[in-house]
């Protein structure tokens, strides 16, 4: 199944792993996937490993049940069901990122809402939902999305939003392409940092709904500009 995918798509998926590490969104954990360009019922993701170490040979193919289609029995991430269930219910989504980006965590465990504070993060819109795993399995889980049912619950909370937070765990970002979802993951983290910095200074003027929509549409027209810079930076840091 991997051999039928566009090689450029696999190149971008590998580069995205390294970019997200270099930009502080992923560390030894977290993952990114992309829908197979020839079969929308499949998606590509790395085997279970640190994102900075991912190479072309580490990419595996999964179906929308979360099953890894590898004749050699290679496994992928325990939380691959985040990806499979979102792809299943969101035909508009072609790439998914789950990260533990640190500035996001406070917004998933407090009443403080994550809202767009600058024009680069207008895609966040007025509401970023929070998934509470206790509503699914009680208070004795390890917080991991390790089953189809949990992935389905998370996908329901995500709804049509581009980002959802996971209480005490991180977040999930979705997009129509690898470049868009990488942009969103990086600027979700950046927005969280800015919001945390601005809060002690006084009342924050957030983007209006109209401003958020207009800036999101504008930035989507220029995704290749930061992508090329992030890719170069990752190469310079020897993470590509």
Task: Please explain how this structure is put together.
With 240 residues, the protein is α+β, with helices and mostly antiparallel strands. It has a domain at 2-112 and 129-177: L-fuculose-1-phosphate Aldolase (3-Layer(aba) Sandwich). It has helices at residues 7-22, 80-89, 105-109, 134-137, 148-158, 178-198, 209-220, 224-236; strands spanning 31-35, 42-46, 59-63, 95-99, 130-131, 163-166, 170-175. α1 packs parallel to α6 and α2 packs across α5 (148-158). The protein starts with 6 loop residues before the first helix and ends with a helix. The mean pLDDT is 96.
For the biggest β-sheet, the strand order reads 3-2-1-4-7-6-5
CATH superfamily of the domain at 2-112 and 129-177: Class II aldolase/adducin N-terminal domain
Tell me the distance between the termini: 24 Å
Order of helices and strands: HEEEHEHEHHEEHHH
Using only C-alpha atoms, the radius of gyration works out to 17 Å
Helix amount, in percent?
A: 25-40%
Q: Work out the strand percent.
A: 5-15%
| CATH second-level architecture of the domain at 2-112 and 129-177 | 3-Layer(aba) Sandwich
Which structural class do you get from the secondary structure elements?
alpha+beta
């Amino acid at each position: 199944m991997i051999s039928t995918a566009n090689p450029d798509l696999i190149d971008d998926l590998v580069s995205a792993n390294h970019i997200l590490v270099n930009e502080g969104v992923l560390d030894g954990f977290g993952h990114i996937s992309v829908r197979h360009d020839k079969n929308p019922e499949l998606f590509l993701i790395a085997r279970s490993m640190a994102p900075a170490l991912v190479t072309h040979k580490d990419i595996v193919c999964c179906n929308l049940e979360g099953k890894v289609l590898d004749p050699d029995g290679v496994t992928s991430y325990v939380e691959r069901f985040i990806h499979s269930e979102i792809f299943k219910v969101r035909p508009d989504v072609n790439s998914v990122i789950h990260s533990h980006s640190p500035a996001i965590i406070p917004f998933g465990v407090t009443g403080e809402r994550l809202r767009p504070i600058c024009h680069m993060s207008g895609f966040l819109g007025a509401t970023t939902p929070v998934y509470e795993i206790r509503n699914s399995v009680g208070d004795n889980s390890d917080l991991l999305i390790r089953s189809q049912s949990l992935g389905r619950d998370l996908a329901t909370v995500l709804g049509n939003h581009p980002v959802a937070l996971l209480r005490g765990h991180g977040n999930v970002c979705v997009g129509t392409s690898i470049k868009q979802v990488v942009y969103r993951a990086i600027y979700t983290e950046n927005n969280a940092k800015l919001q945390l910095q601005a809060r002690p200074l006084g009342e924050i003027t957030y983007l209006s709904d109209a401003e958020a929509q207009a800036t999101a549409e504008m930035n989507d027209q220029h995704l290749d500009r930061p992508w090329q810079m992030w890719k170069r930076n990752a190469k310079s840091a020897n993470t590509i």
